[in-house]
Specification:
Layout (H helix, E strand, L loop, with lengths): L6 H13 L5 E3 L2 E3 L7 H16 L6 E8 L4 E7 L10 E6 L2 E6 L9
Antiparallel strand pairs: 1-2, 3-4, 5-6
Helix pairs in contact: 1-2
Length: about 110
């Protein structure tokens, strides 16, 4: 299933595995992860991420503005999504150039009090 994803999405999955110190091998044919060596928690996280990617394949809205928020330590943005997707806590993937950025819908205002 993962081999059917775009190179960009495969790279995101690889980064996730690498950040969790999951053992992998690499050769001229690509990167290989022995799934039998993963813990149940790691398998579940990987599975959830793959499902998340599949859900995000469809374009559902657009970003109207975005910027870095120094007081929060991460980017913020505004955009439009369908009402049924606009629930506080929902996670979305936002295309920013060639990168996908994970975003969470939060209740405004964004600043810390």
């Amino acid at each position: 299933m993962i081999h059917d994803f775009s190179k960009e999405k495969q790279l995101e999955i690889f980064k996730m595995c690498k950040s969790k110190d999951i053992f992998y091998t690499e050769n001229k044919n690509g990167v290989f992860i022995n799934l039998s060596e993963l813990t149940l928690i790691q398998l579940k996280e990987l599975h959830q991420y793959v499902l998340y990617i599949n859900e995000q394949e469809e374009e559902i809205g657009y970003v109207t503005s975005g910027t870095q928020a120094p007081s929060l330590g991460h980017p913020i943005g505004l955009g439009y999504v369908p009402k049924e997707m606009a629930k506080i806590g929902n996670k979305l993937l936002i295309k920013a150039g060639r990168k996908n950025i994970e975003a969470t819908i939060v209740k405004p205002p964004f600043y810390k009090v």
